[in-house]
Amino acid sequence: MRLVYIALAWVIGIVLASSNQSGAFFLPIIWLVLVALATLTLWLMWQDRQQRFLIITLLAFTLGGLRATLTHNASDIMRYNNSGGLTIEGVIIAEPDIRDDRTQLRLQVETVTSASQTLVTNGVVLVETPRTEQINYGDRIRATGILITPAEYDTFSYADFLAREGVFSIMRFAAIEVTDHNQANPIYAALLNAKATAQNIINHNLPEPQAGLLSGILLGNERGISPEVSDAFARVGASHVIAISGFNMVILSGVILKLLGGLPFKRRWQVVIAIAIIGAYTIFVGANAAVIRAAVMSSVLIIGQSLRRKTYVPATLAFVAIMMTALTPTVLWDISFQLSFFATLGLALYVDPLSRQFRRFLDWFLPPNLVDITTSFLAEPLIVTIAAQITTLPLIVLYFGRLSSVSIIINLLIIPPQAALLIIGVLATLAAFIVPVIGQILYWLDFILLSWTISLVRLFSRLSFADVDFKVDARLITLYFIVLLGAAMLQATQPTWAIRLGHFLRRRAVVTATLFAGGLIVTLSVIIFLSRPDGRFNLWLLDAGHSNAILMQTPSGAQILVDGGRFPSRLLTMIGDRIPFYDRELEVVVITQPDVFEYGALPAVLSRYSAGTVLTNGQPNLGETYAELQSALSAYPVVNVRAGYTLTTDDGVTLEVLHPQGLPDLNSSMDDETLVLRVRYGDVSFLLTSDLSATAQRALMDAGEWPLASVLQIPQHGGSRSLNSEFLAAVQPQVVLLQSDAANQRGDPEPDTLNLLGDTPIYRTDEQGTIHMWSDGQNLWVEE
Fold first, then answer.
1. Is 722 helix (H, G, I), strand (E, B) or coil?
2. Residue 168: in which H helix or E strand, if any?
3. For the segment 205-231, what is each residue's pLDDT rounded down to a tens digit?
4. Among residues 245, 273, 488, 515, which one has the fewest Cβ atoms lying within 10 Å of its Cβ?
């Protein structure tokens, strides 16, 4: 089990070093020095057996941090992102991803041509082109278009997802010219050709949706599954079935091993056959990174179960985790890796104890002969499903925000046929290559199992209670796994102190319960104490993409939210991270204009938090989303404000409305009538401009408003001609804030706009993330 502790230290080092690359502590040279110090300490204290393991663990921590800092988080080609039209040339290095409306290509770029100049470069670009283009793995192509930075959405960061694959640039709507063929690995090309042939055979021999489901299970190509069927699988918690995933393969490995147990082979030959099946399957579907990870996890489980050593699988999983993260540290954030790892861990930890409990449960009301029959028939699919879901369900809820109430039942019904479905599908496809008639007969047999799976999923998905939206704080999921893994490690190692503590707690149940409750109360009191207002004015320019979103907290703890962007989960998380967990009220909510990019997330926020007062510019909007917002606002006082309106809190924070000058109508330009706030606390002031147009900036000054402020939010994300130079001179800011998105396709911020600022310090969300400023009324600080 010592390897488990070493792996934990290694992973913590990676997570810490990856958490914030902007600080000096996260530079490779710092970690290199820490590695050298740990190595020197280990050498000097090698003879001390009591301290040796502790120092080895510390060395693993520093090596993990060093490995994370050495990870490339950029590519040379990304320098050309958002810089206009250009042409890139290179080789397709992955299987083309053919979708309903487009084809996605992974292009290893070799040269870039811009402004009639061709330069050598490197990096991988995700190229999107019409589906009609016939492009294959290994083709050398020339793609013309505009490179952009991948975006971040509400509950999903496309930028982070692609970054884990080494992709930092996208070229959409590219014009493609194929210049050569067969320029990549010929073995992998042959595998992809075999896979494409198998896909055609399946489509020829089976109707839809059965063909699409078998393609997903057998080939990992779920693109042929209709949205209706895909949604049904998602509702019942069976999405792992429709594609090759770690969760799917780990469960199947357990079922395969169980089936092999009935064959007249020695245990070691059963293991060899099971691993051979998984290996052949992995190669057959193209052996991409996700499938290889799932295959390794499955093999670890099979070998560990064959040796019947409880500590073998956790230790081997720890070794696998070290090896995989050493190759690619960012794999820790890959959902398929997490599902593979924790599904394997769940099966290793819980199958045996759950099986024993299941048998004891049956012993209560069934005769011995029926217990054996029931156990052999039900235990494997039921126990395997429950064991895997103990460790994977929290991840599914966290990432997908859905909780299925029928997941256990549906998996109990559809998991048993999956191994047979897979094996028959493989045999049918292989036979179709040689004797098509035999292949057709086997496909018809598989049709029955496929139809069984689809019919049950559709039936259960129609239930009104099949699934519910379920959001959970990522910190609670982290705590869950800390407790889960900690308990598992204590159970496996059985340290003396834990045994004595267990005996003590069991003998003194009342005292234990009292101490536990008291500990929770003390902990809760400490958390509440630490989350109290700090007596200063705080302002956060939230990283909400290409939208306006500002959160403020007054010295006594009143919360003020200005707009919020269009991503509900993203905004709720940023609010929850910054205000006390017990505070469920936003004292003031400001909506600067009826643009969905500014208010789209507010209905979700108002379903979680109450609002004291809502300020708007009074401009109507006929959109459906705005109607939803109006419905959410109906429970709160809404004030339509104009220039001259002032709101002052009890602790001295003043909100002044400088614009609009009157109440706008439906046909007014939203940017011309944007609500502009100046927030004052003591001698420090913040001018919040949202999307105020340059024309409106001129009108504001013509109306006699004096926009002087310590801090200026650049309007319209710093776009072209977004900042009136006379308006800037009137504000005289000491600090400038810019809310922008590195993935925006408008090219913001415009260099000419930034040049107007001269030497004024500027803080940008596209470079620094959320920006935190605070003031005591005289001084102003910025978190960097």
1. coil
2. strand 167-180
3. 998 888 888 888 888 777 778 778 888
4. 515
